[in-house]
């Protein structure tokens, strides 16, 4: 599989990312009637700010967006460590995505309970075709996953060398 890598300066990254996300949003809302996006934490939300400006803010079909998290900390949604709070304060509260299309973890559950609950939610959305899935594995195929990488090479909460890197059955897990 050919992989394309582009390198940007910070400001240019925000501009290019906004166009890339808007183009994908148009494509998937037209083709599937939904656009499924996974967010991470870290600096990502800052880089999404251009989507809140012209020409994107009024042209994107926000009502068709469905938002998920690749990783989340088991803290209340109001906690400063919450990736949901980070995204809500900096982005989601400023765009008209229906609240029912924003799939935060259930912070009333234990860590295990929240991971299982998230997996059940994702499976339900795969079964109802909101999330596309791989015909080979049945696994969800999100339209866009926006990931950051930490200095140690971790992506989401998957750390290099950790056994969870090899997990290939569960969709929601604890770390
Ligand atoms: O919850 C988190 O901390 C993130 O999901 C994490 O995986 C992040 O994306 C990377 O650490 C990169 O962070 P920066 O974008 O801040 O470099």
Automatic annotation (TrEMBL):
InterPro entries: 6-phosphogluconolactonase_DevB, 6PGL, Glc/Gal-6P_isomerase, NagB/RpiA_transferase-like. Pathway: Carbohydrate degradation; pentose phosphate pathway. One of its GO terms (molecular function) is 6-phosphogluconolactonase activity. Transmembrane segments: none annotated. Residues 10-170 form the Glucosamine/galactosamine-6-phosphate isomerase domain. Coiled coil: none annotated. One of its GO terms (biological process) is pentose-phosphate shunt. Its EC number is 3.1.1.31. It catalyses: 6-phospho-D-glucono-1,5-lactone + H2O = 6-phospho-D-gluconate + H(+). It is an enzyme of class 3 (hydrolase). Pfam families: Glucosamine_iso. It comes from the Eukaryota. Belongs to the glucosamine/galactosamine-6-phosphate isomerase family. 6-phosphogluconolactonase subfamily. This is Probable 6-phosphogluconolactonase. It comes from Medicago truncatula (Barrel medic).
């Amino acid at each position: 599989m050919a992989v394309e890598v582009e390198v940007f300066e910070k400001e240019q990254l925000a501009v290019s990312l906004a166009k890339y996300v808007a183009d994908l949003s148009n494509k998937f809302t037209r083709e599937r009637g939904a656009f499924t996006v996974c967010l991470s934490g870290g600096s990502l939300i800052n880089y999404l700010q251009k989507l809140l400006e012209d020409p994107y803010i009024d042209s994107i079909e926000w009502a068709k967006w469905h938002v998920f998290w690749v990783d989340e900390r088991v803290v209340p949604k109001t906690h400063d460590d919450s990736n949901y709070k980070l995204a809500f304060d900096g982005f989601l509260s400023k765009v008209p995505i229906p609240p029912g299309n924003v799939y935060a973890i259930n912070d009333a559950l234990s860590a295990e309970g929240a991971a299982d609950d998230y997996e059940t939610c994702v499976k339900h959305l795969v079964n109802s075709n909101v999330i596309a899935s791989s015909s080979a594995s049945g696994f969800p195929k999100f339209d866009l996953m926006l990931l950051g990488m930490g200095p140690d090479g971790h992506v989401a909460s998957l750390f290099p060398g950790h056994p969870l890197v090899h997990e290939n059955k569960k969709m929601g897990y604890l770390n």
